[in-house]
């Protein structure tokens, strides 16, 4: 056995002493939306980032399936690290969490899909304006050519994507406005979770929103937009996660940390 293999073996032995602590830990949730079983198994193996053993829940939210794998790093005959995975059963609490997350995803998807015809305007006390059902529908261009979950939604925000990216208070204000109506019926599902499986975020759930920016309702009616940002939801930090941004001319806006963290 070469020196590399010996050193790796020592590391594995040391790590093995910590395995007993994993039994009571929250297992890692890894999304693999649209994957086959073999794809989910491979995803579990690729998620093994350290020596020793791990329990990984691989979840396909698109068709509500999940598998748990016990993964481990071993050494092959050439002294190279190899990851193996073995399917194992979910505990009662873990299965309960997984089922709750499927319910939560369906409820949140329906909420996003139905959150329409509402305008955010920070100058209004209510921060929201519901358009009359008889009002002409806006012609919204999301530039979203990817097929996906039917609940990809749109929120309408008065202002510009540059302001949204640079002002954290505005992002937080819009998040509170958007998610406020979901707290009773949708987010309450998460309160029932024992969190034996780590909480998924919006990107894990394969749900996203297009924030369409406007200068006035009249401009929107005429098909004039002021840019857009694709976002998902971070339920732990109660904030938006920015995926990408475009200005009014469909030019990409760089997502710089100093802008995103600006006040």
Structural class: alpha/beta
Strand order of the largest sheet: 6-5-7-8-9-10
The general outline is elongated
Number of helices: 8
Layout of secondary structure:
Blueprint: H1 3-16, E1 28-31, H2 37-46, E2 53-60, E3 65-75, E4 81-88, H3 92-114, E5 118-120, E6 129-130, E7 153-158, H4 161-166, H5 168-179, H6 188-191, E8 209-214, H7 217-221, E9 228-234, E10 239-246, H8 257-260
Parallel strand pairs: 1-2, 5-7, 7-8
Antiparallel strand pairs: 2-3, 3-4, 5-6, 8-9, 9-10
Description:
- This protein has eight helices and ten strands.
- The model is unreliable at 3-24, 131-139, 145-151 and 259-263 (pLDDT under 50).
- The protein starts with a helix and ends with a helix.
- The strands form two sheets. Strands 6-5-7-8-9-10 form a six-stranded mixed beta sheet. A four-stranded mixed beta sheet has the order 1-2-3-4.
- Strand 1, helix 2 and strand 2 form a beta-alpha-beta unit.
- 30% of the residues lie in helices and 24% in strands.
- By secondary structure, it is of the alpha/beta class.
- It has helices at residues 3-16, 37-46, 92-114, 161-166, 168-179, 188-191, 217-221, 257-260, and strands at residues 28-31, 53-60, 65-75, 81-88, 118-120, 129-130, 153-158, 209-214, 228-234, 239-246.
């Amino acid at each position: 056995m070469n020196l590399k293999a010996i050193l790796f073996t020592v590391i594995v032995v040391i790590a093995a002493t910590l395995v007993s602590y994993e039994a009571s830990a929250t297992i890692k949730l890894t999304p693999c939306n649209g994957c086959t079983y073999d794809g989910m198994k491979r995803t579990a193996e690729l998620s093994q980032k350290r020596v020793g053993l791990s329990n990984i829940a691989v979840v396909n939210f698109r068709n509500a399936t999940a598998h748990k794998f016990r993964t481990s790093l071993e050494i092959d005959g050439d002294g190279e690290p190899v990851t193996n995975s073995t399917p194992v059963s979910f505990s009662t609490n873990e299965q309960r969490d997984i089922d709750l997350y499927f319910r939560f995803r369906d409820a949140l998807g329906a909420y996003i899909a139905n959150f329409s015809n509402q305008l955010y305007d920070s100058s209004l006390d209510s921060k929201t304006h519901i358009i009359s059902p008889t009002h002409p529908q806006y012609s919204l261009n999301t530039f979203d050519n990817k097929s996906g979950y039917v609940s990809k939604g749109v929120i309408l925000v008065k202002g510009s994507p540059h302001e949204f990216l640079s002002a954290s208070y505005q992002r937080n204000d819009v998040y509170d406005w958007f998610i406020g109506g979901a707290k009773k019926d949708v987010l309450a599902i998460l309160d029932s979770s024992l969190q034996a499986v780590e909480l998924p975020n919006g990107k894990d759930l394969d749900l996203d929103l297009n924030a369409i920016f406007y200068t006035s309702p009249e401009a929107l009616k005429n098909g004039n937009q002021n840019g857009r940002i694709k976002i998902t939801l971070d339920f732990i930090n109660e904030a938006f996660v920015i995926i990408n941004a475009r200005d009014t001319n469909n030019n990409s806006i760089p997502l710089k940390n100093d802008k995103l963290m600006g006040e």
